[in-house]
Amino acid sequence: MKIVIQHLESIEGVEIFVIIALLIFFGLFFVMLIYALKVDKPSMKAWGNIPLEDDNSTLSEL
Amino acid sequence: MENQNFLYDNRIVKKFAIATIFWSVIGMLVGLLLALQFIWPGLSFELPYTTFGRIRPIHTNAVIFAFVGNGIFTGIYYSLQRLSKARMYSDLLSKIHFWGWQLIIVAAALTFIFGMTTGKEYAELEWPVDIAVALIWVVFGINMLGTIIKRRTRHIYVAVWFYIATFVTVAILHIVNSIAIPVDFFKSYPVYAGVQDALVQWWYGHNAVAFFLTTPYLGLMYYFMPKAANRPIYSYRLSIIHFWALIFLYIWAGPHHLLYTSLPDWAQTLGVVFSIMLIAPSWGGMVNGLLTLRGAWDRVREDPVLKFMVVAVTAYGMSTLEGPLMSLKSVNALTHYTDWTIAHVHIGALGWNGFLTFGMLYWLIPKMFKIKLHSTKLANTHFWLGTLGIIFYAIPLYWGAVVQTLMWKEFNADGFLTYPNFLETITQIMPMYHARTVGGLLYIVGLLLMIYNIYKTMKAGSFENNEAATAPALERVTGKRGSGEGMHRWLERRPVQFMILAVVAVLIGGLVEIIPTYLIKSNVPTISSVQPYTPLELQGRDIYVREGCYVCHSQMIRPFRSETERYGDYTKAGETVYDHPFQFGSKRNGPDLAREGVKTGKTYKPDSWHYNHMLDPRSVSSQSIMPAYPWLISDELNVSTTPKKIRVMQTLGVPYPEGFDQIANDELRKQAEQIAIRLQQAGISIESDKEIIALIAYLQRLGTDIYKTDQ
Questions:
Q1: Distance from CA of B144 to the nearest CA of A (A)
Q2: N or C: which terminus of chain A has fewer CB atoms within 10 Å of its end residue's CB?
Q3: Band (B550; pLDDT cuts 50, 70, 90)
Q4: Average pLDDT, rounded, for chain B
């Protein structure tokens, strides 16, 4: 831990790392959110049906 | 685009299912023993192997990693193959994963019984077993990713994203929180100390809840609930959004385990805020699960599988509201260290994890054995017993928690504590502990009914190790984006890149919380009078960790008048800088010990009191529920480890003088003699080389540094 901290302490203006990290963090999330809101309904419906595609849902016939 | 014939591996699923059931019994029976030990402390049989402090980690690790763990693998190995339309990547890796995981569980139980523990909750495993966990986890990851890569489906279904996030995040959490320097084969010291160790530990601990108990089970919910209900999930769009929101937000919530402690305020606030935000994605999952059954609720009445799943998802929603509310500082001031935390945990564990596992097994076993469940009636009975069990478990503990916390905080008209004796706050809630035990017992009886039912089903059915399937191979698509293909379409074809993005999301939360507590000195203000533990005290501290004392005793006085009046001055961050590991504790079944050694303090006891108390707690406090520790009086302290321990501490930055390891044992013996003389003067015949001397030295050191004036 000391090695990591000593290395980080020696960087001038190391706080920019945190700012960049947070920008990536929130940026990625918002891009994902906008994408997810824009996908068309038929695609969503198709993906939602994937688990039911292999025809072995609840045994009602036995 | 011709169809390919292949085989699903059902044998590995069956093995994991049996393991799940096997460990459920063990894990819950140990839990029952713990509950009974509250009522009859003699149930530790005066043996070191069966004290509450040593067997509590067996219970927690067994139910989390053995029961839920094998449940996760059962569900993943079944669903992943079918969602990928591909057999598991490697049968050999499947076998290594299975047997490796079971061996780790056995190693965990054995090492805990013998007191080989790191003293960090849900991370008690010492370093050799930790390495085994990492290796087997990697085996699991390769097997899983390999399967995803060779899949015959274009889109990676949301359940699989949850599995990927689980794999990636648990790997990071486990490795980071387990970094330690070994002293010998079964003892190590974490590289972190005090407040920073606490932060890393609860970043890990809360995310063990998030990424071991929640995300994989959400994945299982997204597969098994549609299968059981024969309907698609309510909103796939919601599942995408709540998945990413969950994995972004969850990581930050760890500090809510450290509210009103010496953790810096800014970190506490981050924990609170992100915990509250977490209600949204968590309830997204709950809404998706419950609304899947809209218009089909009549089927829930008939089908025990759906009953279990509905209650599971409801319990999930309940816990994920309760947890964030408990993360509010004003609420936490009341609930921390009480049984409310225990009740909260068990709603999630028994309700969400337990019930979803049962629902999955009741659906899966008949499916795989190609026969109806032996008895629907028995399954319904299990459902009702389990539900009642959860209620009888949680409600008494809520009640007891409120009684206890109010007693802790009550002042009389003269301004003194109304209940200055901690023990009275335990004896008053004994009836609640009795009731809680009944709840646990009901739950276990239900479990036993399930085991019988599943066994009869398996016996009557016919099992195929491999299940035939057919699907067209995926067309090879070029690396570049196809025309009109969106970014997400591009991404979802690349599970590895997906994984890396998940890692980034998850890592940033951890780094932003952990690194500043190291870099910014004002977070842990130096207190010049705080010195490292003496060699004898260090050995005593290691006994404290070995016996799991932190399981019942906290060492963190909060800045409330009710605590400073009862225990002494509140704990400062600078006081615990040499504590590898930290021992703040999470629960008070006994009083806080942070200032136990302060002679003018509220909780001070002379050496002879500690001797008699460890030998037989009920000889000094007749109603005490603490187990007896007679072996500390008869066992010799192992001082051969002292030089190595000092050297490891020096490596970790604890400022022992150069060459101190050579004279450490001389110092140890001198201090031990002093304590033995004091005990002999009090009429106790004891040799200075016994373990109790070291433990007394440690206890008498606690909290004293800030009062030292001559340096």
A1: 18
A2: C
A3: very high
A4: 95
Full domain range(s) for residue A29: 2-45
CB contact under 8 A, A37 and B237: yes
- At residue A61 the predicted structure's pLDDT band, cuts being 50, 70 and 90, is very low
Q: Specify the pairing of strand B3-9 against strand B180-184.
A: unpaired
Q: Chain A contacts of B303, Cβ < 8 Å? A: 58
Rounded distance, CA B29 to CA B356, Å?
Answer: 20
Q: pLDDT (tens digit, 9 = 90+) per residue, B668-700?
A: 999 999 999 999 999 999 999 999 999 999 999
Q: Looking at chain A, which residue has its C-alpha nearest residue B190?
A: A1
Smallest CA–CA separation between A58 and chain B, in Å? 5
Instruction: Count up the domains in chain B and report the number.
Output: 2
Q: Under an 8 A CB cutoff, do A8 and B222 touch?
A: no
Cβ separation B236–A8 shorter than 8 A: no
Please tell me whether residues B456 and B592 are part of one structural domain. Answer: no
Test B232 with A52 for CB contact under 8 angstroms. yes
**Residue B135 belongs to what domain range?**
3-471+495-509
Residue A59 has pLDDT above 70, yes or no: no
Q: Are B504 and B556 within one domain?
A: no
Per the CB < 8 Å rule, is A1 touching B469? no
Are B450 and B593 part of one and the same domain? Answer: no
CB contact under 8 Å between B232 and A5, yes or no, is no
The alpha-carbon gap from B578 to the nearest alpha carbon of chain A, in Å, equals 14
Note whether B87 and B220 are same-domain residues.
yes
Query: Could you report the per-residue pLDDT of B588-629, keeping only the tens digit for each?
Result: 999 999 999 999 998 999 999 999 999 999 999 999 999 999
Q: pLDDT band at residue B501, thresholds of 50, 70 and 90?
A: confident
The C-alpha atoms of residue B180 and residue B191 are separated, in whole angstroms, by 5
User: Which is nearest to B549 in space by CA: B115, B43, B127?
Assistant: B115
| Residues B146, B54 share a domain | yes
pLDDT band at B479; cut points 50, 70, 90: low
Give the nearest partner residue to A52 out of B226, B486, B512, using CB atoms. B226
Range B353-392 burial, b when 16+ CB lie within 10 A, else e: bbbbbbbbbbbbbbbbbebebbbeebbbbbbebbbbbbeb
**CB-CB contact of B577 with B85 (8 Å):** no
Give the minimum alpha-carbon distance from A12 to chain B in angstroms, rounded to a whole number: 12
Query: What local confidence, expressed as pLDDT, does residue B475 receive?
Result: 75
Beta-carbon contacts of residue B444 (< 8 Å; ≥ 6 apart): B25, B28, B29, B32, B389
pLDDT, residue B263, reads 96
Read off the CATH number of the domain in which B260 is found.
Answer: 1.20.210.10
Pair B585, B632 in one domain: yes
Whether B508 sits inside 8 A of A21 (CB atoms) is: yes
DSSP sequence for B198-216: HHHHHHHHHHHIIIIIIHH
Q: Are residues B408 and B557 in the same domain?
A: no
Residue B643, Cβ density class (10 Å: 0-12 exposed, 13-18 middle, ≥19 buried)? middle
Determine, for residues B240 and A45 on separate chains, whether the beta-carbon distance falls below 8 Å. no
Top pLDDT among B593 and B524 is at B593
**Distance between A18 CA and the closest CA of chain B, angstroms:** 6
Q: Find chain B residues with C-beta within 8 A of A5's C-beta.
A: 518-519
